[in-house]
Amino acid sequence: MEYQSLLFAQENGIVTLTINREKALNALNKYVFADLRTFFSEDYKKVDGLRGVIITGAGEKAFAAGADIKEFASLDKEKASALSRNGHEVFFLIERFHVPVIAAVNGFALGGGCELTMACHMRIAGAKARFGQPEVNLGIIPGYGGTQRLVDLIGKGKALELLLTADMIKADEAYRLGLANHVVEQGQEVAKAKEILEKIATKAPIAIAKTIECVNAHFDKIVDGYEYEINAFGETADTEDFKEGAAAFVEKRAADFKGK
Ligand code: CAA
């Protein structure tokens, strides 16, 4: 698959999308958003046996240093809200994706870049990763879900501190706060993400998709997550994979899941 601002690679059902704007520290411009939307709404269907997605940034310095500030010059209230809404839509596609999406954070993840990592299901930080929401330095606020997902991930008090001070935190601090799932040697972020996705790929695909849905339901203010889980549990129990998983346990062998 060919994109304007993303590099696409796939191996054994695991897709790696690399934001490819190294000179601009992989700032998220409209083309990056268009490419992400195309992959997560349409193109993923073309990948045989898709079991996981990794998002990372080109080069050694940045995952993504934020929304592209150079696109902000012509913004008025209406255009800014439209830009924000577009970002929300794309990040919801990622957060609600049916297979796990992991951010391999190889450097700066600031503003919209940090927000993109938070829309992913997990974050692997390289030792040089830096996270932050510096928008108040520019006189704006996070526009791609940062005021919501940061609270969900690290709690209100710490989230407010980061959002209000615009402080940048290192990988170890992100791990301590629960923002990063793992910290790895610089350059090993994608490898660690692959290791996790390969483990998940041995599990039943429908159960994985339903687990993501149920966890997302917890944060949905309209949906009752407990009810959602009750229904989803019923649905997973009604699959061939459940019969296979239970049979494999009894027969003391590895399950051969088909995603049915
Ligand atoms: N948008 C556009 N271009 C950016 C950018 C961004 N967010 N971040 C970096 N760049 C560009 C720089 O303009 C520079 O380009 P030129 O060489 O053409 O001048 C190039 O990337 C390298 O950047 P620096 O020279 O600044 O690199 P540095 O090592 O001195 O500093 C940095 C690195 C601390 C990350 C610094 O670049 C920085 O502070 N960037 C902006 C971070 C930021 O404020 N992000 C939030 C954006 S707003 C947002 O995201 C809102 C939202 O939620 C919707």
Descriptive report:
There is one protein chain. This protein is α/β, with parallel strands linked by helices and 260 residues long. It has 2 domains: 195 residues, 2-enoyl-CoA Hydratase, Chain A, domain 1, CATH 3.90.226; 46 residues. Helix content is 46%, strand content 17%. The chain contains 11 helices and 10 strands. A 6-stranded mixed sheet has the order 1-2-3-5-7-10, with helices on both faces. The longest helix is centred in the N-terminal third of the chain and has 19 residues. The two termini are 27 Å apart. The mean pLDDT is 97. It binds acetoacetyl-coenzyme A. Acetoacetyl-coenzyme A binds next to β6, α3 and α4.
Q: How many strand segments?
A: 10
Give the overall shape, derived from the CA principal axes. Answer: globular
Oligomer description: single chain
Distance between the termini: 27 Å
Main sheet overview: 6 strands, mixed
Keywords:
globular, alpha/beta, 260 residues, single chain, 6-stranded mixed beta sheet, 11 helices, 2-enoyl-CoA Hydratase, Chain A, domain 1, 4-stranded mixed beta sheet, 10 strands
Question: Outline of this structure?
Answer:
The chain is α/β, with parallel strands linked by helices. The chain is 46% helix and 17% strand.
Question: How are the elements arranged and paired?
Answer:
Layout: E1 6-11, E2 14-19, H1 30-41, E3 52-57, E4 62-64, H2 77-95, E5 101-105, E6 108-110, H3 112-119, E7 122-126, E8 130-132, H4 135-138, H5 146-154, H6 156-165, E9 168-170, H7 171-177, E10 182-184, H8 189-200, H9 205-218, H10 225-237, H11 240-250
Bound molecules: acetoacetyl-coenzyme A.
The site of acetoacetyl-coenzyme A has 21 residues, from strand 6, helix 3 and helix 4.
